[in-house]
Design a protein that fits this description.
The chain is an alpha/beta fold. It contains nine helices and 13 strands. Helices cover 30% and strands 21% of the residues. It is globular. The C terminus is likely disordered.
Amino acid sequence: MAIDLAAAFESPPPALDFIWPGFLAGTVGALIAPGATGKSYWALEAAMSVACSVAGGDLVGLSPALNGKVVYLAGEDPDVALVRRIHAIGHHLNRDARCAIAQNLILEPLMGKRLNVMDERHLARVIEFCEGSRLIVLDTLSRIHDKDENSNGDMARLVATLEYVATCTGASVLYLHHVSKGSAREGQTDQQQAARGASALIDNARWCGFVAKMTEDEAQSLSDRAYDRQPIGNDRRGFFVRFGVSKQNYDAAPHEQWYQRRDGGVLLPVELLNVKQDSGKGRQREQA
């Protein structure tokens, strides 16, 4: 249906509905990172924050305005790994939050099931399964299609198919994807062009976030100790990752956050201080 231009000129526009800051409801977004960085943990914790309708479930600090049903399709990990991940996260959630998440989040293991959203039958089942969701997470993109990731034509059709899923279900669709080897080697995993494969994968998505490992330079210039501001150092930098936004098409302030990796791999927000700043002014904050 065409937009009524006369009404659009004269009437106040509707408010934008964001899943979390910058990620507009009903659109397709991407989360990119090298392997073993923590993107699946971040995505699962983010899914829980959207699914949780009570206080205490937003471990990643996204502050979603609305909550609802979330479907997480996990194509990389076996059941036992997913259960261990959920159990580790549960240690940081109160009872009410755990109950609310269990009610609203569906975590479906798909490893070995050969899901292919480019197949019409598979696509129809995904749409039926996810109907009424607020968010659908696809972990990872390479596990849900059979097209050439280096082909702009193929990847444009893949993103268009995910947009079709969003339109049919009313959900936003977030797919997880790896960075290219060159971007990882050159330490540019936080750049929009870092994603592996055709540029259409990011060009055609409306939002793109990243999870990046702490660099050696960052480990020497940042501290998690307010009392003496000692650098984190290379021995501990593997415990810290940075989330940020490399592409955002709609009007919300980009979100950036450092996380510390805790027992079991759980990511919790942490405030890191500049080593050169005057000590005593900062305070470390963790959300537990």
